Amino acid sequence: MPRILITDDSSFQRKIISSILDKEGFETVCARNGREGLDLAAENPPDLIVLDLLMPEMDGFEMMKQLRERGLTAPVIILTADIQESTLDACRKMGARACLNKPLKKDDLLATIRDILDQGGI
Predict the structure, then answer these.
(1) Has domain 3-120 been given CATH number 3.40.50.2300?
(2) Cα distance between residue 9 and residue 62, in whole Å
(3) 20, 41, 70, 87: most buried by Cβ count inside 10 Å?
(4) pLDDT, the chain, mean
(5) What tens digit of pLDDT does each residue of 107-120 get?
């Protein structure tokens, strides 16, 4: 089953997302910030990353940048409450495969993950 890294500074969000994905049979691992997420991704590369943008220590933008610099190519889904088009464009330019708005909708998350994983043949 695909392994998904959830990186969000909110323990509440991490629990919600991991609960949804665990029930669907995905393997999940969680990180509290971009630095921790980057370390976990380097140790055992995930098949997909669900990433918050605004976090302490290292934000989602910096994590995406460093993932690519390290040659880690897992697709990234951004979760954000910031719906400004400029923010969404910046995420896409950095390689995010999708951007989902908070509050998160379970069906949107699952459909997006399945679509991305199906495209990658996982």
Answers:
(1) yes
(2) 14
(3) 41
(4) 94
(5) 999 999 999 999 97
